[in-house]
Amino acid sequence: MAYVSMGEAHRRITEYLNRFCDAVSYQDSSMLCRLLSFSSNSPSLLSLADALNVFQDASSLIRQSDKFSEYGEILAHLFRSLQSYRVGNLVEAYLAFEKFANAFVQEFRNWESAWALEALYVVCYEIRILAEKADKELTSNGKSPEKLKAAGSLLMKVFGVLAGKGPKRVGALYVTCQLFKTYFKLGTVNLCRSVIRSIETARIFDFEEFPRRDKVTYMYYTGRLEVFNENFPAADTKLSYALQHCNPKRERNIRMILKYLIPVKLSLGIIPKDELLQKYNLHEYMNVVQALRKGDLRLLRHALQEHEDRYCIVAVFLRSGVYLVLEKLELQVYQRLMKKIYIIQKLSDPARAHQLKLEVIAKALRWLEIDMDLDEVECIMTILIYKNLVKGYLAHKSKVVVLSKQDPFPKLNGKPVGS
Amino acid sequence: MWLRTIVVDTRHTRPLLTHHKTTQTRDIPITTVPTNNSSNQASHILSLLGRIKTQTNGGYQTTNYNNQSAGGYPSTNYSNQTNTPNQGNYTSTPYQNYTHDAANTHSSTVATTTTPVHYQQSYQQWPAYYGQTEVPCAPGTEKLPATSAVSQSFPVPGVTNETPASNGQPAPSYAQPWRQETDLSQPPSQQPAAAVSASNDAYWKHQTQNQQAHYPVPPQNHYQSPLETKPLYETPFQGHQRATYPQGMNSQSSVHQAPLGYRQPTQATPSVDTQRVSKIQIPTNPRIASNLPSGYTKMDKGSSAAGATQTPAYVSVSMPKPKVHATPVPEPGTLPKSLCGFVERAFARCKGDKEKASCQAALKKVITEASDDGTLHTRDWDTEPLSTVLNTDVTNTESSSTLISSLQNKSPTKRPKSRWEPLVEKPFVKSASTFSSGVKFGGWNQQNQNNKKSFESFQKADAVTDSKPTYSWQNSKPAYSWQNSAKKSFQRPVKRQRFSGGAATAIDDEASSDSDKDSTPSAMSFATSAEQTKRRDSRSKRFEKVQGHSRRNDIPRPNIANVGILHSRRGTALRLGEDFDESGCRSVEDIDWNALTVKGTCQEIEKRYFRLTSAPDPSAVRPEDVLEKALLMVQDSQKNYLYKCDQLKSIRQDLTVQRIHNHLTVKVYETHARLALEAGDLPEYNQCLSQLKILYADGIEGCSLEFAAYSLLYITLHSNNNRELLSSMSRLSKEAKKDEAVRHALSVRAAVTSGNYVMFFRLYKTAPNMNSFLMDLYVEKMRYKAVTVMSRSCRPTIPVSYLAQVLGFTNTSSEGSGEKETDSMEACSEWLKAHGASLIADSNGDMLLDTKVSTTNLFMPEPEDAVAHGDKNLDVNDFFTRTS
C-alpha cells in the first residue's frame, strides 16, 4: 500500500464525502453507483480505502459537517466496509456493508422518486458478491459460511421496499434476480417460489414494464426452475423468451441459456443444428445430439456415463441439473433405433416390416455393446408403447412388437414424452 | 441514592424552569397517569425512583442513574427511540448517552440533570461538538447499528476493532465546542416537523444525533449562563400529572425496548397546569405521530400546554424560559427543594438495596402524609430527622417491586433481550420474582451482579469526587473538573461493557481475561481488581447454585444445550449473539455449554426412553461404557422393534445429553437406522440418517458408504425430489461410486427413473446390505406401474407366471422348483386380483392376464394395514405391548 499522508488522506475522504453528498443532492445516480461499487475495484475507491486506513477516524470527519452527518450512518458503515475490504478482511467488510445497505435502504425508502434505483442495484449486487467472498473466506477458515444467507434475507427486505406501487416497483425484478442468484448458489431454490409468486400474481407488477435485462434474467432462472420440475413446455417458453430477448452480443449469456434450453428442446424432440453447438461451444451436447440422431444408445450412455476423461462433463450435467433430463432421452434413442430397424426390415421384407422381433432388437443392442435379455427388451418396448413413442402392441407370446401401420413412430413435435 | 440526585436536581431546576429563556426540548418518557393531588407527588418520586432503579439495573450505567435520577429518563427514552428506526443502532447510541451522563454527573450533579433537556438545541451543532469532544468515547460507536448487538454495540475504545482510532485520546478541549453550541442553540424547527412525517428516517437519524448531542450540550449551557439552566426534566415534578412515571412507563419503555415499546404512548396526558408548562412539546415517535395533533407548531410560541394533551411514551417538553431567575415559589405540584434534599440525604444513608427499598417506602409514607396535611411545602425538610425514614422495616418494598417484577416477567416473551439493553431492575427481581424467572433471563442475573457492583463502585466514586457536591449552578464547575469526571465516566462504560462481555462468553475464559487486561487503571480506580474477582466469583457461585439447587430452573438449558450440539460448537460470542438475535427467546450469550454437559452415573443397562422435560439428571444418565453394553444388549435382544427403538432412543438421548460424539454414537445411530429400515419406520430412520450425516461429516468412521446408498435410495424412492437427488449424486465421490451398495443404489435409481421394472426387480433380488428394505417400500408402486404399462402395451394376454417372475414374486430369477413357482404364481395372481386385473385361464389351465380388460380396471387398493390416524405404529396393540 502506497504511503498516504494524513493530509492527503483527509483530502481524499473529504472529496469522497463531497461527491457522495452531491450525488445524493443532485440525484446523480450514476455517480452514486460509482461511489458504491466495490467490486469494480476502481482506483478512486481503492485510494479512498487506503486513505481511510491511514486516516483512522473518518467518522469524525463525517460528523463535522451537517452535510455529511445527514448520511453519517450510511457513510460510516460504508467506510468501515471499504476499509476491511481493502485489507482483505472480507467478513468484516461484509458485516459493515450489510449495515451500510440497511441504512441505505432506509434512506432510499425516503426518496420519493426512483432516481437512486441504479444505486440500489449496485448495493444489491455488491452485497451478494461480498457475501460470496466472505463465505469463501469463512469456509477457508473452517467456519460455516452463512453470509450469503444473510445477504439473501437482506435482499428479500429490499424486495419488500420495492414491491409496492410507485416508480420504484420496476426495480423489484432486479432484486428478484439477485435473489435467484443467491438462492441458486445456496441451493435453497424453493425459496424462489414466494418471490415468483409475487412477481407473477401481484397486480402492481406489469411484467413488460420491467427492464429487459431483468426480464431476461428472470426468465432464465424461472426456466431453470422448470427444468428441475421437469415441466418442459414451460421451461421451453421461459428459456426461449430469455434467448430471444437477451443481448445477442453476449455470447456467454446465450451459452448459459442454451445450456438449459438444448436439453429441454431435445426432450421435446427438437434437435439443434451442429453449428449452433459449435458456435456457442456447447461440445458437451454433441454426443447427445449425435446419439439421438443415430439411435446410438451406447453413445448416449457414454456421454452420460462417467469415464475418467469425461468425468467433469458428467459433473457439469449433474450440477447444472440437466443430467436427469438428458437421461430421459434414452427412450427417444430407443425409438430411433427401432425406427432404423423398421426401415431396414422394410427394405428387405416390406410385408412383414411392421413386426419387430424382440430378438432382433436385442441383437441390435448387442451390436451396440449393450447386453440385454429379452425380458428387459420387452420391458423397454412396453414402456415405449406406453409412452406413445411407438404405436402398436407387444405380442407377449410370440415376443414380437407389432407396429401400427400408420405412423408407427410418432414425432414428439414439441410435446413432452408421454403426453 | 437515586433520590439524592433527584432532589438536587429539583432544587435547582424548578425555579429555573419557569424562567427558561430558550426553548428547551427534552424527551421525557411520560406514560402519564394523571395524578393531580399532592399526595401523588410522593408516588411520583417513588415511581421515579423505581424507574431509575430499573434503569440502573438496565445494564447501562448504573451510576448515571443514581446520580442523575432525572437524567435517567431521557436516556431510556432515547434508547427506545433509536431502536425503532434503525433497528441496529439502539445499543450503541443510548450507551453513549449514558457515558455523557456519567460525565456530567461526576462533575456536578446539577449539570447532569439539566443535560438531557437540551438536546434539541444541540441538535445542529452536535456533529461538530461530537467530533471533538466525544472522541475518547469510541468514535464510531454511535454509528454502529448493532446487527450483532453483542460485538458491536459496545465498541468501547480499545475493546473491539470497530472502534477505530483515537481511543486513547483524552477528551479534547471542551470549552470550544460548547461555546459554539451555545451560540447556535436554537431549537431546530426541523425536528418536530420530521417527527410528524411518519417513518421519516431522517428524523430518526436526527434523533439519534440529538441524543448524542444533547448530553454534551447542557454542561456548556450551565457553564456559560448558569442561571439559565433549568433542568427541564423537572417538569414532571411540577406538573404532578406528568410526573407519574408509573409502572406502565417502566414496562413499556424500559422493559421492552422493542419498537413496540413506545407505540403505546398515547395515553391520555392529564391536563397540565398550563401556565407553568407553557410550552410542552410532545414530539412522539413518528410512527405514532398521526395520533399527535398540532403540538409542534406551538412549540416556540409559548402557547401553554400545547402538546400536553397527549402523552407519548416519551415526551419532549420544550420549555420557554420566560424570565431569568424566578424566585422558587413552591407551587402545588412541585416538590420543595428542601424536600428533595431530605430525600436525597435519606438515600445517601442507605447502604444496601434493602435499606434503600425500605427507606424509599418510608419516604413515600412521609411525603404522602405531608402532602395530605398540607405541610409539604411548609415543613422544614432540612431539619426533618432522617430517623423517621431510616431503619424502618422493609415492608413496603414489595409493592413497588411487584410492579416491576410483573413487568419484567412479561418482557422476555415479548422480545429477545440482550444483556446490552437496559434491563429491568435487578435487586427487585431477586427479591420479588422467583428464581426460575431469573434463570430464564440468565444473562440478567449476571448483569445484575455486574450492575450492582458497578453501581456500588460508582457510589464510591461519587463519594470521592463529590463528597460534598456543589449543587448550585453559580458554582459552575471549572472545566477541568468536568474533564476529569468526563474521563472517568468515559471509561466507565468501557468497563461495564467489558464485564458484560465477559459474562456473555461465560465459558470463554479468554474473553473474560481479555476484559481484565483491557480495563484501564483509571477506569478501574474505583472497582478494584479484587472487586472484579469477587464479582466473578459471585457470578460463578450463582451459577452453581442454579445448577445444584433446583433442577427445575434449568429447564431451558438442556434444550439449548441440545441445540448447541446439533449446531456446531464453534460458536463464538459473536455468533451466539447473532443466533440469539435471530431465535431470540433466551439470552443465549450466557449459556455455558461445557458446564451444562452432564456426566452420567447411572449403571442400569436398560432404560426406557422418556422425552426430557427437565434438565437431565446425572443419576439417570448412563455413562459411555454402560451405553456400550446397552447397545450390545439391544443388538442381541430378541424383543420386537418397538422395544429396541425405545431402548435406542434412550441411548441416543444419553449420548446427546453427554455430548458424546464418537464411534459409539455412530454405531448407535447406524444400528437404529438399520433397525428402523427393517421395520419400515421411516421417520425414525430419517432422524438417524440426518444425525449420521453430521457425524460422518465430522470425520467419525462408520459405514458411511452403506448409508450413502441408503440415502440415495431414500431420495430416489421416497422423496421424489429431483434437485435433492441431483445434489446427492453429484456429491458422491469416485470411490463411493465404486462401492457395491452405492452402485446398486445408483442402478436402482436409473431403473426407477426410466421405469424399467425388470431391472428394478432384478436389483431388488440382488440388493446388498439393507437396500432391499428401502426398496420394499417401493415395490408396490413399481409393480402397479409395471402392470399398468404392460396391460396397456401387450396384447392380448400375459401369462401370470411371466408376471410373477418379472415382478419379483419369485425368489430367484432362475426358475426354481415347481412348488415355489406355484406359490409365487398364487401370490402374484392374488396381487393382480387385488388390483383389479382380470385373469383368465387358457386351455392349458395357465392363468393369463387379460390386458385389454385390465387396462381400464386397474386400481391401487387401500393398503390393508392402513389405520385412520395414518400411522400404523400407533396401533392399539402395539401401544399395549409398549406400555406393558
From TrEMBL, chain A:
It comes from the Eukaryota. PROSITE patterns: PCI. InterPro entries: Csn12-like, PCI_dom, WH-like_DNA-bd_sf. Residues 216-408 form the PCI domain. This is PCI domain-containing protein. It comes from Brassica napus (Rape).
Automatic annotation (TrEMBL), chain B:
Residues 74-92, 148-170, 393-411, 467-488, 520-531 have a biased composition (Polar residues). It comes from Brassica campestris. InterPro entries: PCI_dom, SAC3/GANP/THP3, SAC3/GANP/THP3_conserved. Residues 681-855 form the PCI domain. Residues 532-555 have a biased composition (Basic and acidic residues). Residues 185-199 have a biased composition (Low complexity). PANTHER family: 80 KDA MCM3-ASSOCIATED PROTEIN, LEUKOCYTE RECEPTOR CLUSTER MEMBER 8. Residues 489-498 have a biased composition (Basic residues). This is PCI domain-containing protein. Residues 66-92, 141-200, 286-307, 393-422, 466-561 are annotated as: Disordered.
